[in-house]
Amino acid sequence: MLPSLEFPADPSWVVPDERQCSRFWDKYDMMPHIREHCRAVAGVAVEIVRRAEERGAVPEGRPLTVPLARAAGLLHDIAKSYTIRHGGSHAQLGAAWVREETGNPLLAQAVLFHVAWPWSGRELDDVRDPMRLPVIVAYADKRVRHNEVVSIRERFDDLLVRYGISPDKMDAIAANYAHVQAVEQAIFERVGIL
Predict the structure, then answer these.
(1) Average pLDDT taken over every residue of the chain
(2) Are 97 and 79 in contact (CB under 8 A)?
(3) Helix 105-112 crosses helix 66-75 at what angle (to 10 degrees)?
(4) What are the C-alpha distances in Å from 119 to residues 47, 140, 148?
(5) Phi and psi (nearest 5°) for 114?
């Protein structure tokens, strides 16, 4: 059994609003097309959390709110422009920047795990209980191609074209696609989307 990556929220942790997120985008010189992508991802994440709240599908005591979902979606690719220019992991660097800027480990965790959730393909806890900020942000990211909300099939077709540069990468993308399908089903069941 893998250890839990959840921890209780602290009310002193900053949850930046859209204006503050935009300032971070400026500070880290985020490219315009990545800003548009982040806005779309935030929109998907917010819609999921709103529906979950309406249905009472957010487990009691879990730090999962619309403001958190919006901020995490807006900041998930905060380091993408930098790593396009200089290399490195945009998820790792972005998580460090978000933690430094906000002091909020929940947001940093969502940024860190938006590319690959650590339980994917193993325990599949994210399928049994998808109502966690990192899972929702990772899923929302898989629903947005550039700045357009698309099906996960369309998004993964795009990922194969852009990143399927070797048989190993193609296999990893295919395995991730199957996992995201299961996550989508679990999210839809919780929030009432058929």
Answers:
(1) 90
(2) yes
(3) 50
(4) 24, 17, 27
(5) -70, -20
**Would you give the distance in Å from CA 91 to the centre of its chain?**
10
Instruction: Quote the CA–CA distance of 81 and 36 in Å, as a whole number.
Output: 13
Residue 133: Cβ within 10 Å count: 25
Angle between helix 105-112 and helix 133-142 axes, rounded to 10 deg:
40
Confidence at residue 11, expressed as pLDDT on a 0 to 100 scale: 77
pLDDT above 60 (res 2): no
Spell out the alpha helix ranges (H) of the chain.
Answer: 18-27, 32-55, 66-75, 80-86, 90-102, 105-112, 125-128, 133-142, 152-163, 167-191
**pTM above threshold 0.70:** yes
Using CA atoms in the order 104, 136, 126, 60, what is the torsion angle rounded to 10 degrees?
70
Domain 18-191 has CATH 1.10.3210: yes
Q: Tokens at residue 59, please?
A: 């487990």
Of 106, 104, 74, 80, nearest to 92 by C-alpha is 80
Tokens 């929940």 found at: 106
**Amino acid, single-letter form, for residue 67:** P
Q: Distance between CA 140 and CA 74 in Å, rounded? A: 11
Q: Which two tokens stand for residue 36?
A: 């548009």
**HSE, side-chain direction, 13 A CA sphere, residue 182:** 15
